[in-house]
Amino acid sequence: MVSVAFSDKYFNSLLKLTPNEQSQANKAVMLFQQDPQHGGLHYEKLTAYKDNKLRSIRANQDVRIILAAAEKEDLYLMLYVDHHEPAYHWAAKRKVEINPSTGSVQVYTVEEGVQSEGSKSSGIPDQPGLFDAVRDRQLLQLGVPEDSLPLVRSMRIEADLENARDRDQIPPDAYEGLFMLLAGATFEEAYNEVVPAEPEAVDTEDFIAALARPESQAHFAVAEDEEALKAVLNQSLEKWRVFLHPAQRRLAIGKKNGPVRVLGGAGTGKTVVAMHRAKWLVENVATEQNKVLFTTFTRNLATDIQQNLNKICSQDALQRIEVINLDTWVISFLKKQGYDYGLLMDSREERRLWEQAYSEKPASSALSMAFFQEEWARVVQPQSIGNVEEYKKASRIGRGTRLNRQERVDIWPVFERYRHLLASNHLKETDDAYRDARTLLEAQPDLRPALCSVIVDEAQDMGTQAFMLIRALVPAGPNDLFIVGDGHQRIYGKNKVVLGQCGIDIRGRSARLKVNYRTTDETRRLAVGILEGISVDDLDGGEDSQAFYHSLMHGPAPQIHCFASIDEQAEAIVEQISVHKFAPEACCAIARTRKEVDALKSSLESRQQSCHVLDGRSAQTAEGAINLATMHRVKGLEFDTVFVASTNRGLVPLEFVVDGAADPVTRRQRENEERALVYVSLTRARKLAYVYGYGVLSPWFDRD
Ligand SMILES: Nc1ncnc2c1ncn2[C@@H]1O[C@H](COP(=O)(O)OP(=O)(O)OP(=O)(O)O)[C@@H](O)[C@H]1O
């Protein structure tokens, strides 16, 4: 019995074979693991190739598996599988090496005849080299293989680097360092990103040690026994289950000395990290009595996460984790304590109460009702202000309207009345429920649920009271909190948090993911462009940035089009689905309001396109039906194709929301949220995104 490792590219090549060939290849690997010398496998050394570690075995008469042998260690790396000719062609120029600087296992092609001077990859000889300012020694430190130095020196334009990556001439870890340099990072920044923890002395022959490093595990999965082999073959179809980016793996595993915060643009695998963290915790820290709580902001994301955890955790481990959205948790907790309130969720009801409370406003005041609602959400609730004395002293930083002490005293009755109305209707706002639950836990610690850790996804939409409750749920200590979010996707504006002010100290334990695994770079760029110039917080009072955020996939730039009517827009959606043979259930048409979603639904249905509206309670989308959703509803989801629809002037940004702001600061906040909604919508697309509108297009997309 030998150990077998698979490269991620092995699975890419496997998936291109017929199902029958795939199963023959799987059988060959299983047999090989038991007995590499088995006669039926025709284990062969490939001589006269670039790398003398390369071997082949037969999956059938025609299909060959290319592997690299670390024979002394009884370890074999499965690299590629294909029909006879292309398989050997693939192997001819490949090398498998342990990089002497980074210690990672790298697979790359070596081309003859690339000179450091003279021959230029892009054929633009007069242009300076992309990396002229960087020394050879530094390139090697970033993990560029020595063989690839001439190629890197010959690069003149960005496309040269991308081409080299696509042709495997630059291994992915080295590409990342080079990409960062190109995007303006200093050598030190790039180096710290690629080699955050320098391996001790690297033994370039020790593949077992090399495969244990996170850099290698981003692209290799090891199966030491038959069970592990079956698991890898089974899980490999969904790469996120097996191959984590080194930055993701470092976050997911190991003891952490306190709360960890993970930021990252859309699609950078934050939820994936959070799920792997949960898996590590349930396997290494949690017990039956001391579980892991995985919380989300929205309900439908909790369901998705539960389903995905089922795929990576054993049945036994799943017993030690609870996935739930925070509102549901808090209400069920409070109900058990005899709490007799409902949560105020209905916006019409909320408006009705505010209208009554607003009647308490002094006649001399010109402040609008919108002002009071904002003031409540941004000042009174986050600071738990319960009386006029506290309100007089409250911090109002970031509010656009000044109020002196007397003015605060004058308007306080409006808030008092609103609170009274909530109480007499047996209603609580979610922030109240969070506060009540925390107060209960602090007064009676024995009520505290038995938890070793709380994981928080979508943290950007949880506010101060939510985090103060989360802090109270689990004692401060190692592995206590793992918080994942992205301020660029904050779409429920009432909430904004500074973790440090909630007793959550993340200093020295924070990371930002940069590789977008979901969206093509063309779609990502359009989405990021919508947020340009906006300052976004890092959940802890600082500023976040999207520097070095990039996608590795490419595709057509999103098509932007304005139609004459909603019917023409629907017609175009139906036509694109039919022309490109999209599976409708893998597409989603997203509009800003529920009313617009309904109008689009009617128009699509009148064209015999069945629809499935996502509303949080909806079941699986039936085959042949296109998903429809509001921009709020698609947070956390993903689809092959996305139609960001009805991006009309007045709807995007939603005029009455922005214009209803009581002051310029709130107006800007609301407009930023509208931008975030578009960013979220576009970044749901795995393959293609369309931006459609009708009448007059949104100024954000109107290029004329
Ligand atoms: N290491 C990985 N290898 C392959 N695919 C990955 C990896 N990490 C994440 N993905 C995939 O990328 C997509 C986005 O991942 P995920 O939903 O975790 O990102 P996110 O940062 O939480 O996104 P968002 O903030 O936009 O909701 C998913 O399809 C996921 O399976």
TrEMBL record:
The protein's UniProt keywords, in alphabetical order, are: ATP-binding, Helicase, Hydrolase, Isomerase, Nucleotide-binding
Q: What class of enzyme is it?
A: isomerase
For this protein, the record's InterPro entries field holds: DExx_box_DNA_helicase_dom_sf, DNA_helicase_UvrD-like_C, DNA_helicase_UvrD/REP, P-loop_NTPase, RelE/ParE_toxin_dom_sf, UvrD-like_ATP-bd
A Pfam family hit: UvrD_C
What EC designation does it have? 5.6.2.4
UniProt: ATP binding residues = 264-271
Q: Which Gene3D superfamilies match?
A: 1.10.10.160, P-loop containing nucleotide triphosphate hydrolases (3.40.50.300), RelE-like (3.30.2310.20)
Name the source's superkingdom. Answer: Bacteria
Gene Ontology annotations of biological process type: recombinational repair
| Start and end residues of each UvrD-like helicase ATP-binding domain | 243-527
**What PROSITE patterns has UniProt attached to this entry?**
UVRD_HELICASE_ATP_BIND (PS51198)
Q: Which family does it belong to?
A: Belongs to the helicase family. UvrD subfamily.
Supply the name of the protein.
DNA 3'-5' helicase
Q: What is the lineage of its organism?
A: Bacteria, Pseudomonadati, Pseudomonadota, Gammaproteobacteria, Cellvibrionales
